[in-house]
Amino acid sequence: MAPIPHSGHAAVEAYLAEGYSSVVGMSSRFAAAICARLLRLQTEEGVGGPIAEIGAFEGRFFIALAHALEPGEIALGIDIFAWPNPEVKDRFEANCLKHGIAPERRVTIKADAGTMSPAELIGHTGGEKLRFIHIDGEHSRAALSKDLALATACLAEGGLIVLDDMLHPGYPTLMVAVQEYLAANPGIVPLCIIDRETIVGATKFVLCQRDWFERYQAVMLTIFKEQVWPLGADFEPHWCLVLSLDTRLAAIT
Fold first, then answer.
1. What DSSP letter does each residue of 40-103 carry, written as one string?
2. Which of the four CATH numbers 3.40.50.150, 3.30.460.10, 3.40.50.720, 3.40.50.2300 does domain 10-243 have?
3. 5 phi, psi to nearest 5 deg
4. Are 164 and 55 in contact (CB under 8 A)?
5. Peptide bond into 84 cis (omega under 30)
6. 174-184 helix and 141-154 helix, angle to the nearest 10 degrees
7. How far is Cα 140 from Cα 147, in angstroms, rounded to an integer?
């Protein structure tokens, strides 16, 4: 098995080791480490600014992302905060405080992202577009399509969109929404697939602007060399990396 990559941030590493599993949620530690390292890669490539998570729940993944920000950058946590009960918002706030994400580093937004306009969303950042958007909201084809449209309108140059629970057996129609979106937005391409850790810690797709694909991929081949599955992913005709804890190829005899 390949090792979980280093996130590139001491605060993220401490949280992943000591706090991540204690926060209720379903995202994998493997994916959190990769996404935090992608945030560091953006910084190294001169891409800065705020980030957002649609579907923050109790904050497990959000906290990891927020710890990966540079000084002065903020994280937006967006959720309807109604499931499984209204107290989930209080638990989100408490988890952020407990694990070191101070109020001045984040904005909590109780809203349905599907009803938000781009102007409304980036109004929370003073008009600054987002460099990283993690979509983990309502798992329906219609909702994902709306979230993707919002994310694309709010995406900064060099920005990344990360989609949760891709290829999950419980949500087979999400892939239909993704294919329709990619066909309608040729300027956006898959940058990589983050393989599942378990059926709960499911696969994520990372999308980027086409003009940034080669720039990011060239560095990622080195950063994640131990996690690269050799055959990659074929999006017909676009090809991208697959990052996995299990990089074996099937034995053919």
1. HHHHHTT----EEEE--TTSHHHHHHHHTPPTT--EEEEE---SS-TTHHHHHHHHHHHTT--G
2. 3.40.50.150
3. -70, 155
4. yes
5. yes
6. 40
7. 11
CA distance 11 to 180: 38
CA gap 65, 162 in Å, rounded: 12
Q: At residue 253, what is the residue type?
A: T
CA distance 19 to 201: 16
d(CA 153, CA 133): 11
7: three-class secondary structure by DSSP: coil
Q: Could you give the angle at which helices 29-44 and 10-18 cross, rounded to 10 degrees?
A: 170
Instruction: Give 73-131 pLDDT, tens digit per residue.
Output: 999 999 999 999 999 999 999 999 999 999 999 999 999 999 999 999 999 999 999 99
Q: Nearest CA to 92 among 109, 115, 104, 73?
A: 109
The pair of structure tokens assigned to 231 is 């055959």
CA angle 243, 239, 45 (to 5 degrees): 65
The answer to whether 148 and 181 are in contact (CB under 8 A) is: yes
The pTM assigned to this predicted structure is 0.97
Helix (H) or strand (E) holding 39: helix 29-44
Query: At 234, is the secondary structure helix, strand, or coil?
Result: strand
> Tell me: the pLDDT tens digits for 28-79?
999 999 999 999 999 999 999 999 999 999 999 999 999 999 999 999 999 9
